[in-house]
Input
Amino acid sequence: SKNVYHLKLDIEIGNGFDLNLVQSENAGSKLSFDPKSNLLSLDRTKSGQVDFHKRFPSVESVVVKPEKGRMKLEILVDKNIVEIFAQDGKVVITDLVFPLDSQIGIKLDWN
Output
């Protein structure tokens, strides 16, 4: 099914990363990690349909401490639900998104 997937990642942090989930050319939900602040953030401001309420477009951020320079992520996407479990579930982000039909890609960028 489109926009239904389960990712397990073990990432060497380096200078951080951006992981674009449920993405198309102009829209997506971006998961980012900034190693200077130890902030893991899910940005849904451009996640598809966001204009139905002024508070819906948002960025959720949590502090996550890398272990030995690495970050373990388990990411579950089920159409409208994005769940991120960091460091074996020590930190969790759960959010709703309303992607457009064309948003079916995933892209990882290193900073």
Observations:
- The beta strands are 4-12, 17-23, 29-34, 39-43, 59-63, 70-78, 81-86, 91-96, 105-110.
- The radius of gyration is 13 Å.
- The chain has a mean pLDDT of 91.
